[in-house]
Amino acid sequence: MSKPTIASVSQSSITPEIIQIWLIQQLSEQLQIELNEVDIRTPFDSYGLDSSQVLIIAVKAEKAFGFKLSPVLLWHYPTIESLSHRLVEESTFADQIFEI
Fold first, then answer.
1. pLDDT tens digits, 63-78
2. 32, 80, 90, 93: most buried by Cβ count inside 10 Å?
3. Interatomic CA distance for residues 18 and 13, integer angstroms
């Protein structure tokens, strides 16, 4: 069975696991490291991300998921695991607010 791609997932079915996979891919790409070198429980600052890399990930997140990822969230939720759960909460909350 193939893994879902971001393009094939509706915003209402985004899960922490989908965001985690996406973030692992983004960190791997930005830092030019292997996917298996990225741990969802390791703080972002341990990877040595600079501000431009964080902004690139934030812009790509908005395009991929349809909601803004404030770079500040990476400091408030300092791991892939914690950030992915927070983003799903925000996405679900936004869906409830705009539900007709």
1. 988 878 888 888 899 9
2. 80
3. 9
Determine, yes or no, domain membership for 7: no
Dihedral sign computed on CA atoms, order 47, 50, 55, 56? negative
Q: Which long-range contacts (CB under 8 A, 24 or more apart) does 54-62 make?
A: 56/30, 57/23, 57/26, 57/27, 57/30, 60/26, 61/22, 61/26, 61/87
Residues 38, 44, 47, 49: is their CA dihedral positive or negative? positive
Provide the whole-model pTM: 0.79
Contact between 15 and 88 (Cβ < 8 Å):
yes
- Could you tell me if residue 10 is inside a domain? no
Asked if residues 73 and 55 have their Cβ atoms less than 8 Å apart, the reply is: no
Domain assignment present for 9: no
